[in-house]
Design brief:
By secondary structure, the chain is of the alpha+beta class. The chain is built from four helices and four strands. Helix 1 packs antiparallel against helix 3. The protein starts with a strand and ends with a helix.
Length: about 110
């Protein structure tokens, strides 16, 4: 059984026009590949940590890692992804397994 994964996207916008071209189509394509945007955010302040701030945060829940991979690797989207790449800079894209609670991380085997 596959489990959901979260994709945390942190980035700065380098070209509004390029990123608009990406965002006009990406929401529909993300959904078609088993993803849904859970949260959108604009940087407010650094509370802790040494990571350089990014202006934009997007959190997407994917049905599975395979669903995420299908979005990234779909040949029909080969013309879409360059708009994301060309419209952003300082991109951080991390995947996290969905957990119901932290017990798996806190037990001895975690």
């Amino acid at each position: 059984m596959s489990t959901p994964v979260y994709a945390l996207n942190l980035f700065n916008i380098s070209s509004r026009e390029e990123y608009k071209a990406y965002s006009r189509r990406s929401a529909r394509e993300v959904q078609a590949h088993g993803g849904r945007v859970v949260a959108l955010g604009k940087f407010r302040e650094a509370a802790a940590g040494e990571i350089a701030p990014r202006t934009v945060m997007i959190l997407v829940e994917w049905d599975s890692k395979a669903a995420f991979d299908s979005y990234c690797n779909d040949p029909a989207l080969a013309d879409l992804h360059p708009h994301r790449v060309n419209g952003t800079r300082d991109y951080v894209w991390h995947l996290f397994d969905k957990l119901e609670d932290l017990r798996p991380l806190l037990n001895d085997a975690g």
